[in-house]
């Protein structure tokens, strides 16, 4: 008989996790849970601050995607001011967001996952990291470092600094782009294209090496959600909030500022991270589970809208699973990230050719005209919402931050259950099993790993529990 195990997540914050696995009487997996301590104090201590401070404050939420938080905060401010920002400001925000996605995806694929994908899940754990990758596949490791450097450099050229830039503002951005900086960005692009094309060329090797386990890594039907352009194309800054099912059918499409009409949030006693769900399917077997991020974005869009990314999108969609019209395996997040990097480089090249980009009018000035505002953009890990309520002076009275990692929480838990069930038999498991389960989490590139994964290892504790709750075995990774 199964038993519910409750672990109080007191001490762990971003970068720490615990997995518990319950066995049935036959020693097979009955349940598995991913416990995360992600205390989002920003929703409390930002109360009482002004909307003009929010882009700079919320950029501190994450060290990997501060640009996305800053843009979502500024967009919420735009809505409260009731202004349309200048075309140059919109282009600059898009440019910085694409560059942020490049550096974040490069970190995820080349630094955090390539060691698993190219050296093997069962390879020596002492070498299964970036250092080991530098020794065995130096070209891949160096390409990853260079690609991340390109993304960071573009963010710096646009926003003044690569980490926690206080550059966006309600109404636009603070500084226009100088022509010399535009030219430097253009000069970085050929290296970026060459590296991501080389990364895509690794996929045949990766899929052959992991063919036996791809189907156990989060391969199940679910909803997918994210932004799409008005024409259904891949979109990261504006557009509509779309949900599709595993058949590829659109089940909801609304203006993103009305997200709370279709998304609910529930809490569980065993994790600080909430469990957002699709309201219309809250009572279904999967409890309204949906996925966001690269896999979801490539499933929900009608096209990428750029030549090279559209060609790669066709290859990506050839991996549709069985009866499903969507790519349902979370292993394919890796492939999707590379396509998104390619798409971002193509979009940056288009933006650099736009004559409005260098316009000096980059900010619309206004006072508070509305009591509420919702800011949305696609962060590297998925769609991001900043929902603010202010008083007449623009002082925050209430805010809700709906981040991508939380929206993937139900799917991440189901992924570790699927992996544990596939690889733990008769109550036996090994370090290699631990790594496979960790990789299943890493495929989503959750925020909790951002601060601690720079060298390819995430603090993780895995416990194996008998039906009555007795601890049978455990592995801990500091």
TrEMBL record:
Metal-binding is among the record's keywords: yes
SUPFAM superfamilies: HydB/Nqo4-like
Cofactor(s) recorded in Swiss-Prot or TrEMBL: Ni(2+)
Pfam families: NiFeSe_Hases
Superkingdom of origin: Bacteria
Family annotation (PROSITE patterns): NI_HGENASE_L_2
Keywords: Metal-binding, Nickel, Oxidoreductase
Protein family: Belongs to the [NiFe]/[NiFeSe] hydrogenase large subunit family.
Protein name: NADP oxidoreductase
Organism: Geotalea uraniireducens
Species lineage: Bacteria, Pseudomonadati, Thermodesulfobacteriota, Desulfuromonadia, Geobacterales
């Amino acid at each position: 008989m199964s038993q519910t195990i409750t672990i109080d997540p007191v001490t762990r914050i971003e970068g720490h996790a615990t997995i518990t696995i319950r066995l049935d009487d036959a020693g097979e997996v009955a349940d598995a849970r991913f416990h995360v301590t992600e205390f989002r104090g920003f929703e409390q201590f930002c109360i009482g601050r002004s909307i003009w401070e929010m882009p700079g404050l919320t950029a501190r939420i994450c060290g990997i995607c501060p640009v996305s938080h800053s843009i979502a905060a500024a967009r919420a401010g735009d809505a409260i001011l009731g202004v349309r920002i200048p075309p140059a400001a919109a282009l600059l925000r898009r440019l910085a967001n694409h560059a942020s996605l490049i550096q974040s995806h490069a970190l995820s694929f080349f630094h955090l996952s390539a060691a698993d994908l190219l050296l093997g899940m069962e390879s020596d754990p002492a070498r299964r990291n970036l250092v080991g990758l530098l020794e065995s596949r130096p070209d891949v490791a160096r390409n990853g470092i260079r690609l991340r450097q390109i993304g960071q450099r573009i963010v710096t050229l646009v926003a003044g600094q690569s980490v926690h830039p206080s550059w966006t503002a309600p109404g636009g951005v603070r500084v226009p782009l100088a022509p010399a900086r535009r030219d430097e960005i253009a000069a970085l692009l050929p290296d970026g294209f060459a590296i991501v094309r080389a990364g895509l060329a690794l996929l045949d090797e990766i899929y052959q090496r992991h063919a036996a386990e791809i189907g156990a890594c989060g391969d199940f039907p679910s909803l997918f959600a994210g932004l799409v352009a008005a024409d259904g194309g891949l979109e990261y800054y504006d557009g509509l909030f779309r949900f599709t099912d595993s058949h590829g059918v659109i089940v909801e499409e609304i203006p993103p500022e009305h997200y709370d009409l279709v998304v609910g949030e529930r809490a569980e006693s065993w994790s600080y991270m909430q469990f957002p769900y699709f309201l219309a399917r809250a009572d279904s077997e999967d409890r309204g589970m949906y996925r966001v991020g690269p896999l979801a974005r490539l499933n929900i869009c009608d096209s990428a809208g750029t030549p090279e990314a559209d060609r790669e999108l066709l290859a990506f969609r050839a991996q549709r699973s069985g009866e499903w019209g969507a790519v349902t395996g979370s292993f394919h997040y890796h492939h999707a990230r590379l396509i998104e990097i390619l798409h971002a480089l193509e979009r940056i090249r288009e933006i650099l050719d736009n004559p409005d980009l260098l316009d000096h009018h980059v900010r619309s000035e206004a006072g508070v005209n509305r009591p509420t505002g919702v800011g949305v953009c696609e962060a590297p890990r998925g769609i991001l919402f900043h929902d603010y309520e202010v008083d007449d002076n623009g002082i925050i009275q209430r805010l809700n931050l709906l981040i991508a990692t939380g929206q993937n929480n139900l799917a991440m838990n189901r992924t570790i259950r699927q992996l544990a069930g596939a690889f733990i038999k008769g109550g036996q498991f090994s370090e290699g099993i631990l790594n496979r389960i960790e990789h299943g989490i890493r495929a989503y590139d959750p925020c909790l790993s951002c601060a601690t994964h720079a060298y390819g290892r995430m603090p993780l504790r895995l416990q194996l529990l008998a039906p009555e709750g007795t601890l049978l075995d455990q592995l801990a990774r500091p």
